UniProtKB/TrEMBL annotation:
The lineage of its organism: Eukaryota, Fungi, Dikarya, Basidiomycota, Agaricomycotina. This is DNA helicase.
Length: 87
């Protein structure tokens, strides 16, 4: 996929639980989940295209040590959901 089609974002990237990831948008400025924050990939959710069988990232949970904001229901303190972004 050409970078012009993805607004200069990567078209594909391998995801491995535990890998370091960097937040690229300001999700929760008051809580510290901002562009440049580094955490580790804790879980991944995909959606599957029924016609092609291809999987696409839907959301993931990133564990960010040192942030102690109120946890969302079903998540541990320091875990933050990151949702898919469209181009």
């Amino acid at each position: 996929m050409h970078s012009g089609q993805t607004a200069h974002r990567l078209g594909k990237i391998p995801l491995v639980l535990g890998m370091p990831v960097m937040i690229s948008q300001n999700f929760d400025v008051d809580g510290g989940v901002v562009n440049g924050t580094i955490g580790s990939l804790k879980s991944i959710r995909y959606r599957t295209d029924r016609s092609s069988g291809r999987r696409y990232l839907k959301s993931c949970v990133v564990s960010i040590p040192g942030l102690d904001g109120k946890a969302l229901t079903g998540l541990e303190c320091g875990d933050y959901p990151i949702m898919e972004d469209s181009v």
